[in-house]
Amino acid sequence: MADSSSQPVFYSQDVPRSPGVYVYRNSAGEVIYVGKARNLRSRMSSYFRPSGALRSDPHRRALIHSIASYEIFPVATESEALLLEAQFIKQYKPRYNVELRDDKRFLLVCVDPAEPFPRLRLVRIRRDDNRLYFGPYPQATALREAVHFLSVRYRLRTCKVLTPNPETHRHCLEEVIRGCLCPCLGAVTPEEYGERLDEALAVLRGESRPLLEELTEKMQSEAAAMDFEGAARTRDLISCLKAMAEPTRRFINQTIARRNASSNPEGVAALQEALGLPSPPLLMECFDMSNISGSLAVGSMVRFRNGRPATAEYRRYRIRSEEAADDTAFMREVLQRRYGRLQREGGAFPDLVLVDGGESQLAVAVEVFTDLGLPSVPLFGLAEKQELVIRPNEAEPLELPRDHAGLKLLQAIRDEAHRFANAYHRALRNRRITDSILSDIPGIGVKRRQQMLSACGSVREIARMTPEQLAEAVPGIGKNTATRVIAYLQNALGEP
């Protein structure tokens, strides 16, 4: 803690070179700015150097002259610093965080499905739209190198023109250096481009092992041929791709259908024929459940129109049933809530309903439709391991060829329901861990929780401490209380 004088004395040797969060206060003790840093000493020194105020813009100069005291909160990683910074900004609402627009959020990779030929873009804000987002990624330089490599390898367009055409190609050198599939010249169909894009997105989803193995062999070959410069470049690229897959990354794993089309008539027609349906299943709904031993059980409903995801019509459900770890009971509740409401409101029923599971899940769906007196809707289940289509009142499941367009459509809607349910469950789980897990510990009040988070940085960091370390870091907490807190958190988080 610095002096409370109008201009604090800054001793750089007292500030660690670790990641962390720093808080600036004015002479009245009001928090005026919260920032995070990879290196606290380096970042904070820039504010207190004589040249710092002279070379800064007016808002930054005003901030520097207003600093009367500061606090630092070292943490273990940049990710934890980011979370703590967000917590403090939400808590204190510092005026200069708004005025400076100091955006230090980690980068994300964004893909816009609405574009005829989507490209990989880097953004810092995930908006509530229909775009695909991967990340955030803590290592910006590595991410940029990796995205550039993926764009070149799969020959994706990099131009910023929303609708590439021959006119824009006059000013484009990508085709000359063979770095693009040249959709603006009609050199590739939307389907072909979509296939290459999906390969790149698979790497972003974490399916990078085959690519890393290929690059490792390339590096070894270059080294054996004494091309050490080439081997070093390949080595650095491998490091960049591995950095993207670090456990600190969180990604929005969304399936990407072919971007150029608004429908999938082939899959819909093939499904109608395979299942013997009286009409094409233009409107389909699929359900999936997600839970851990019944904890934070959730359900999802995804809707496909004309064989494509209708994301605005997705629904998610927090399970109200008290039956522990019973997926069939969870499925029953979600189906009752979904179609009971459609029945009451006179909504449109789907042409086909799919449940993720086998005979037991399908039997529940049949019972719900019967009990509610709902319209006759084709009901099916899809068993994940064998990919068998389960049909009501049929002794044998239907096994379709793996390359069957109808089966691929069923798999797509099933996988999307699974993703949507898991994403919701993960969000609830993370929220519980970060926001309320400490409040579940008997005898730990609000003030004590704030003290522990301020001193230690995160719930997970507390769980990794020894009782002696926690008691030393947080004044007033005895060894017995520290032992109890750590034991509770380790059990809740699954830490050793």
Produce the secondary structure layout.
Layout: E1 20-25, E2 31-37, H1 40-48, H2 50-54, H3 58-66, E3 69-74, H4 78-92, H5 95-100, E4 107-111, E5 121-123, E6 132-137, H6 140-153, H7 166-169, H8 190-204, H9 209-224, H10 228-244, H11 265-275, E7 283-292, E8 295-305, E9 308-309, E10 315-318, H12 327-345, E11 352-356, H13 359-372, E12 379-383, E13 388-390, H14 405-436, H15 446-456, H16 459-463, H17 467-473, H18 479-493
Parallel strand pairs: 7-11, 11-12
Antiparallel strand pairs: 1-2, 1-3, 4-5, 4-6, 7-8, 8-9, 8-10, 12-13
Helix pairs in contact: 6-10, 9-10, 11-14, 12-13, 17-18
Structure explained in plain terms:
By secondary structure, the chain is of the alpha+beta class. The chain folds into four domains: 12-100, GIY-YIG endonuclease (3-Layer(aba) Sandwich); 107-244, no CATH class; 265-418, Nucleotidyltransferase, domain 5, CATH 3.30.420.340; 437-493, Orthogonal Bundle (DNA polymerase, domain 1), CATH 1.10.150. Helix content is 45%, strand content 15%. It has 18 helices and 13 strands. α9 packs antiparallel against α10 (228-244) and α12 runs parallel beside α13. The longest helix is centred in the last third of the chain and has 32 residues, at 405-436.
